[in-house]
Amino acid sequence: MNSQTLGGLASDQKIDNVFRVFGYSIPIGKDGRRMWPTKFKREMAKQMMSGKLTVGDVQKTCRVSDKTAYRWKSDFQTPTKKAAKRKDRPAFVEVQVNETKPVEPNSDGHITLRRGATELMLPTDYPVKHLVHLIRALDGET
User: Fold this and answer.
1) Residue 83 above 50 pLDDT?
2) How many other CB atoms are there within 10 angstroms of residue 44's CB atom?
3) Which of 18, 64, 94, 101 is the most exposed place for a label (fewest CB within 10 A)?
């Protein structure tokens, strides 16, 4: 019997041995281990994140290690808080450089753009944002 098969928190009728903490009844298995329901862990995490309880309060009252209390707290943090922690980590991305030179300035004042069998000659003052659109179109991107 575990917390998932109990469907949340145990009542005293479903199991003989119960650990009472913070108004909850936590079932204790035959091996003496407490089966912490997800609903209870989520509530403890919410209380710790709001500042109503400290990790130490949860640790002492629930008789769990500080590692367990911190895990409950981190497991139920909002995605934005988790993302904020990951923000400090370096991010890596692979960059590949093609050997072909798509844009070549000529001495005669033109830009030559080559893609496959296509060659375009444009004036050197051709707007850059339009040049980007042309390159994407020639590469098959829209």
Assistant:
1) yes
2) 26
3) 94
Hey, how many other C-beta atoms are within 10 angstroms of the C-beta on 3?
Answer: 20
Helix (H, G, I), strand (E, B) or coil at 62: helix
Helix intervals (H) in 35-121: 38-50, 55-62, 66-75, 79-86
d(CA 81, CA 94): 27
β-bridge mates for residue 120, sequence order:
113
**Beta partners for residue 119, in sequence order:** 114
What are the distances in angstroms from CA 132 to CA 2, 90, 105, 108, 129?
A: 59, 29, 15, 22, 5
- Model confidence, pTM: 0.46
Quickly list H helices, the chain.
3-6, 38-50, 55-62, 66-75, 79-86, 128-138
> CA triplet 43, 44, 49: central angle to 5 degrees?
100
How far apart are alpha carbons 48 and 64 in whole angstroms?
Answer: 15
The structure tokens 């042309």 sit at: 134
Instruction: Read off φ and ψ for residue 39, nearest 5 degrees.
Output: -60, -40
